[in-house]
Specification:
Number of helices: 10
CATH topology: Rossmann fold
GO molecular function: ATP binding; ATP hydrolysis activity; phosphate transmembrane transporter activity
Helix content: 25-40%
Keywords: ATP-binding, Nucleotide-binding, Phosphate transport, Transport
CATH architecture: 3-Layer(aba) Sandwich
Largest sheet: 6 strands, mixed
Domain ABC transporter: 8-258
InterPro entries: AAA+_ATPase, ABC_transporter-like_ATP-bd, ABC_transporter-like_CS, P-loop_NTPase, PstB-like
Bound molecules: adenosine-5'-triphosphate
Strand content: 15-25%
Number of domains: 1
Organism: Sulfurovum indicum
Length: 263
Amino acid sequence: MADKNVVMEAKSFSFFYPGAEAPSLNKIDLPVMENKITAMIGPSGCGKSTLLRSMNRIHDLYPGNTYKGEINLYKADGSKENILKIKKENDFIRLRQEVGMIFQKPTPFPMSIFDNVAYGLRLSGVKNRTELADRVEHALKGAAIWKETKERLGESALGMSGGQQQRLCIARAVALKPRVLLFDEPTSALDPISTGAIEELISELKKEISVVIVTHNMQQASRLSDYTAFMYLGELIEYDDTEKIFLNPGKKLTEDYITGRFG
Ligand SMILES: Nc1ncnc2c1ncn2[C@@H]1O[C@H](COP(=O)(O)OP(=O)(O)OP(=O)(O)O)[C@@H](O)[C@H]1O
């Protein structure tokens, strides 16, 4: 059994896109610590998104990929599930409730603000109207967007600003009470003020949720994360406390990257 502070863990995980000769990820070992923020950094094409997407099997939406190794999700009772073994539709739905994903561009559904958040709840079997309304309110509060939305819950989510839409997407994920939330460059399409609000929100979320974030923004990784993984050409070069990675990296490649010598 893993250390009880580990909530997810990639073990010797390799990933091949169809037709590719070399793996896009080569034997990655990476823990995700509970109630902490783990940042994944590295130059374009090093495999950050592929690894992130593998953590809730989003990559399965594109057929033909192959992979080896394990990605384990540890349960509260200490048991573990290798999520790479999941095959049944219901288990995928459960996995994506437990391990949610926020994308670079906000992806609100073309429906009301309320229904955006209620969508996943209904899918997971919540039918009672009072319970739905309570959980939608709680999630919108949790994503720090309740004040802006409480008078307009019936309006289309598409009328919101980009930053508001991103917080709505976070509320939609939070409503399902995930254990892990995966963020794929969640602020790269946002202005600095919205970016600050999302960063603050992510810091708050870690009280209840473990977070993995892919970012190209070195300041964001150093401000926000507790642990940082530096990847290069499909390899995990270095993983450590964020402070160590940024102040005293163990590998020259890491140092060259964070000091902007390549990237
Ligand atoms: N659908 C795909 N089919 C084939 N190869 C792919 C596919 N998606 C990504 N790759 C390749 O896999 C490798 C890793 O890509 P990935 O998108 O995970 O990197 P990344 O570090 O997230 O990059 P970026 O920072 O630019 O988003 C790259 O060599 C890329 O060209």
